[in-house]
Amino acid sequence: MLRLLPLLLLLAACAAPVAPPPPPPPLPYPAAARDRLLRLALEEWREWGCRVSGEAGEPVAGACVPTFPARESDPESFPRVLAYWRSVPDAENAIPRNRVLYAGALRGEATPLWAEPYWSAAFISWLVGAAGVDTVEFAPSASHSRYLDHLDAVWAAHPALAAFVPRDPALHAPRPGDLLCRDRSSSPLAHWSLRAAERGRFRPMHCDVVVGVAPGMVEAVGGNVDDAVTLVRVPADPAGRVLPNPRPALVIMENRLGRLPPWHQENRS
């Protein structure tokens, strides 16, 4: 039995779960990355036809002249959504499936082009990557929950260096560049901290990029909203914190691009 003890200990060690290594230290980015993120989000919104959802009124993010009213099912939208999917490593069969549908649309068939899988997370991943943010700081994914898990892990390992920091929507008033995220599941989490117990598992979520704020209003641009890239207007309280519309936000990822040393400038918003 004594001779078997080392072998048993070795087998037990092999069977024990191995914790993933902590993410490498992130690098700071200039404010130009955040500015580019916002510019790209608004440009995509305009190209999709300036669609607005939510509260009525003139968008505070800026005037918008529709250049191409479109929906995901329009054949003209095929390269737009394809570009978003190309930015994520876990696109699975989204592209092959929709190439077949696109070919049918070109033959005049009515097809549910890009109706599934949902491409909202691919849109956010494309925006952040196109803004010039590397995968160390933001891991692109076809799932909002997975890239949010990565952002949360980076912050937990490197709180002083993380480009995105999870904030409680009940306490944090979002600013342009932040990610406003909601839990879309049938049993939503009551607080973002509860996500730690299930990190790595899929959960239906949705995030938009905040592009404008005004008294009583937060505006954010998201993909796959009303089958397009849409600007969503969400009511806010007098302190600028988002109100439930129709369900409360789960987490706000504060965008610190350009706000960390050596790029931090006190006079920037």
UniProtKB/TrEMBL annotation:
InterPro entries assigned: DUF2272
Source organism, top-level taxon: Bacteria
Keywords of the record: Signal
A Pfam family hit: DUF2272
Domain DUF2272, first and last residues per copy: 75-243
Signal peptide stretch: 1-15
Protein name: DUF2272 domain-containing protein
Organism: Sabulicella glaciei
